[in-house]
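SAMPLE LOG
Freezer: B-3
Tube label: C17
Construct: single chain, 223 aa
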Amino acid sequence: MTDQAAFQRARSVQAKRAREDAILDAARALGGRRGIRDVTLTDIATEVGMHKSALLRYFETREQIFLDLTAEGWREWSAALRTGLAEHEQATPGLVADAFAATLSARPLFCDLLAQAPLNLERNVSIEAVRTFKLGTLEEVDLIARELFRLLGLAEGQAVDTIATATGMAGALWQMATPGPRLRELYTSDPQLGHAVVELEPRLRRLLTALLTGLADEGRAGH
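STRUCTURE (predicted):
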């Protein structure tokens, strides 16, 4: 934790950026340890070593902090996914599905954020903050869609559907895969509840392989 005296109000652009980065780092660490839902604004302020009122000079709400981390996650995941896909001159639906599943499952905090963003993060920030977030996300979707067109010939709408399905399912499946110790004990101890134990990566891979195979068949039928 940083000493509160070190967090006097920033008086330059560089100092303000440093404060914001420290706040984001604290939220990222707490979210990774506890899960996004259980992290409060007070928790973040305490982790940084600031009063909550001082933290609000840099971010309008708790949700804005995590929405900024979601935008950061989109950029980082998109870059990693596209780097992996760029290694191939051609690909099968299974290979592309594997790339999506592997890169998403390797980013548990991002998966958690993907689930929380539409549920609450976008609902307690300014309209301008939502607009900035959406435009940034659309930029990454467009870049990924170009790779899907190059490798599988997916039309724009098909590519967008694929990306939306992958990220939406990653968020939902991550929540199911991390039920907490008590629920996990229940699910694993009762044979009737075995289906509730979810492994994110293999299930996401299967779902995306089925989707992409169907889209490929649809494309061939249209020619």
